[in-house]
Write a structure and sequence with these properties.
Elements: E1 6-10, H1 14-24, E2 29-34, E3 56-58, H2 59-68, H3 72-78, E4 82-86, E5 90-94, E6 97-98, E7 106-110, H4 113-126, E8 130-134, E9 136-143, E10 148-155, E11 161-165, E12 168-171, H5 179-185, E13 193-197, E14 201-208, H6 213-216, E15 219-222, E16 233-240, E17 244-251, H7 261-269, H8 275-280, E18 284-285, E19 290-292, E20 297-300, E21 312-314, E22 320-321, H9 329-345, H10 351-361, H11 363-373, E23 380-381, H12 393-406, H13 410-420, H14 432-440, H15 454-459, H16 467-470
Length: 474
C-alpha cells in the first residue's frame, strides 16, 4: 500500500478517536463516522451503555495518550479525574487474600467514562485535523476481497445513503462490529475468532462520597475467588469527578445480580468481605441501578488470513474485546494507536504489517483476561489459543504461585503491577531475572483484614477490625 492520503474511521468512541488522531498526524484528511449524535459535554449516549460502569485507564495506556496528546492528563486532572497509585491508594481483596499496599509503581486514572471520552474528544477535535460526521452509520464496505476503497454509510434519521471513498478504512465500531459480515459479502474467507465467555454481568450506582473521602479514602476492589466451584462475585468503589464514587457490583454466570435499588446493598454485603457494603452505608446514593451484560472476551485474528484486504484495519474492540472487570480495554486501544502512529511515522504503509502489529498490541490484555476467566465455574471457553486449552495447566500453576507471591512480596508485586498496568510486556514475567526474583523476594506477613489506617477509617466512620487496620503502609 502506498502512502494513504485520506482515511475513514468507523466509530467515534475512545478507540476510534485515538486511531483518527494517530492517522491525522500523518495523513492529509481523516473522517470519523459515528452513529450517535455525540453530546456537547460529559454525558451518556445511547451507543455506549457500558459507560455507566466503572472504568479505569492504566498508567501504561495513560502515558501513551499523553505522548500522543500532550497535556491530556492535566486536562483530565482538571476535570476531576483521580490518579490512584497502585497499590498505595488501592485496597484489594484478591482470591488469595488482601494485597499489601506497597508504594505505587504504577497508577490508574479513575474518572467517569463520559468525562474521559469528552475530554479526549474535545482535545482532538480542537486540533482541526479530524472531521467528525455524526448521526451516520456504516452499512457495508466498498471494494473487493483484494482492496477496500471506502464505505457506504446511512444517515440515521432519514435512511439516506452515500458512498465515501478512502485510501484506508478503520473499523472501530466496537463490540457490535459487523466486520465479519461485511467481509463475507466481499467473498473474504472467515476470520479466525476466539471467544471466552464467563457470563459476566454488571450493576452500577453512583454515590456521593462522605466529606473528604473522595480524595482521602482509597479505591476498593473486592474480588471473587475463582478457585471455588461457584460464581465469582465482585465489588469495586472508584472515585470519580465531583466528589462522587462509582460503584460496580458484578457476577459471573450463575450469580443473581441485584435487580433493584433495594437489592444493591445486600448483594454488596454478600461479597467475600463486607467492606464495600460498610462503606456504602456511609454514602448517599445519587442514582438508581444500571445493569449490563456486555462482557465476553472476543478476539479476531485478521493477521492469519493469507490475503487480508489492502486498505482495511480492524481496531479497538472490533479487533479484541475483554471482560471489563480487568480494565484493560482503554489501554489496549491506546497501545494500538501508538503502534499505528509508529508505523506511519516510519513510513511503513503496508497495511498487513500494520494490522499484525496492532493485533500483537492487544495480546497482553487478551491473555491476562482470558487466562483468569477460564478458571471460573460455568465459563464457556470457545478459544483455540493453546495458552487457554489443554496446554494451559502449567501456565495456571505459575499464575497461581505468582498471585500468592504478588500480594505479599514488594518487588514481585512491583513487576506484576508493571505488567498489569500494560507499562511492561507480559513477557517480563518469564525472564530469568524475574524468576530469580520470585525465589528471593521475601514474603511479608499475611494480612487478616483490609489494610486501612485509622485516618482513612475515620473518613467513612468505621472502626478498625484489628491491628492490621492501623499498620503503616509500606
Amino acid at each position: 500500500m502506498s502512502r494513504p492520503a485520506h482515511a475513514i474511521v468507523l466509530g467515534g468512541g475512545w478507540a476510534g478517536m485515538l486511531a483518527a488522531h494517530a492517522l491525522s498526524r500523518h495523513l492529509d484528511t481523516v473522517t470519523v463516522v459515528e452513529r450517535d449524535t455525540l453530546p456537547d459535554g460529559p454525558e451518556h449516549r445511547k451507543g455506549l451503555p457500558q459507560a455507566r460502569h466503572c472504568h479505569l485507564l492504566w498508567s501504561g495506556g495513560a502515558r501513551i495518550v499523553e505522548e500522543l496528546l500532550p497535556g491530556a492528563l492535566d486536562r483530565l486532572d482538571a476535570a476531576g479525574a483521580r490518579r490512584i497509585g497502585v497499590h498505595k491508594d488501592l485496597v484489594t481483596l484478591t482470591a488469595h487474600g488482601w494485597q499489601h499496599r506497597f508504594e505505587a509503581a504504577q497508577y490508574a486514572v479513575m474518572v467517569s467514562r463520559p468525562m474521559l471520552d469528552f475530554v479526549i474528544r474535545e482535545q482532538i477535535m480542537a486540533l482541526g485535523r479530524v472531521l467528525l460526521r455524526q448521526g451516520v452509520e456504516a452499512v457495508r464496505l466498498l471494494g473487493d476481497a483484494r482492496r477496500i476503497t471506502g464505505a457506504e454509510v446511512r444517515t440515521v434519521h432519514d435512511g439516506t445513503t452515500e458512498e465515501l471513498t478512502a485510501d484506508l478504512v478503520v473499523d472501530a465500531t466496537g463490540r457490535g462490529s459487523r466486520l465479519r459480515h461485511w467481509l463475507a459479502a466481499l467473498d473474504v474467507p472467515p476470520i479466525d475468532e476466539d471467544i471466552v465467555d464467563v457470563g459476566i454481568g454488571y450493576v452500577t450506582r453512583i454515590f456521593q462520597a462522605p466529606e473528604g473521602a473522595s480524595t482521602g479514602f482509597p479505591a476498593l476492589n473486592v474480588l471473587g475467588d475463582y478457585r471455588v466451584r461457584e460464581p465469582g462475585c465482585n465489588g469495586a468503589v472508584y472515585p470519580i469527578e465531583d466528589g462522587r464514587w462509582i460503584v460496580t457490583l458484578s457476577g459471573t454466570r450463575g450469580a443473581t445480580l441485584p435487580a433493584t435499588d433495594a437489592d444493591f446493598l445486600p448483594f454488596a454485603r454478600s461479597l467475600r468481605d463486607p467492606l464495600v457494603a460498610d462503606v456504602l452505608e456511609r454514602a448517599e446514593p445519587l442514582t438508581g441501578v444500571f445493569t449490563s451484560r456486555i462482557g465476553i472476551n472476543r478476539r479476531l485474528y485478521p493477521e492469519r488470513l493469507e490475503a487480508w484486504p489492502d486498505g482495511l484495519l480492524a481496531f479497538g474492540d472490533s479487533l479484541a474485546a475483554f471482560n471489563p472487570i480487568y480494565g484493560h480495554g482503554l489501554s489496549a486501544s491506546a497501545r494500538g494507536a501508538a503502534v499505528l502512529d509508529g508505523h506511519l511515522r516510519r513510513g511503513e504503509w503496508r497495511i498487513r504489517d500494520v494490522q499484525r502489529a496492532v493485533s500483537t498490541a492487544v495480546d497482553d490484555a487478551w491473555i491476562m483476561a482470558t487466562s483468569r476467566d477460564i478458571c471460573y465455574v460455568n465459563c464457556r471457553n470457545l478459544a483455540r489459543d493453546p495458552r487457554l486449552t489443554g496446554g494451559a495447566l502449567s501456565r495456571q500453576r505459575f499464575t497461581e504461585a505468582l498471585a500468592v507471591k504478588a500480594i505479599r512480596a514488594p518487588r514481585v508485586s512491583e513487576v506484576v503491577t508493571d505488567v498489569t498496568s500494560l507499562a511492561v510486556p507480559q513477557a517480563e514475567l518469564g525472564t530469568s531475572r524475574f524468576l530469580t526474583l520470585m525465589q528471593q523476594d521475601p514474603l511479608l506477613p499475611e494480612l487478616t483484614g483490609p489494610p486501612l489506617d485509622r485516618d482513612e477509617l475515620a473518613l467513612v466512620n468505621l472502626v478498625p477490625r484489628g491491628a492490621v487496620a492501623a499498620a503503616p503502609r509500606l
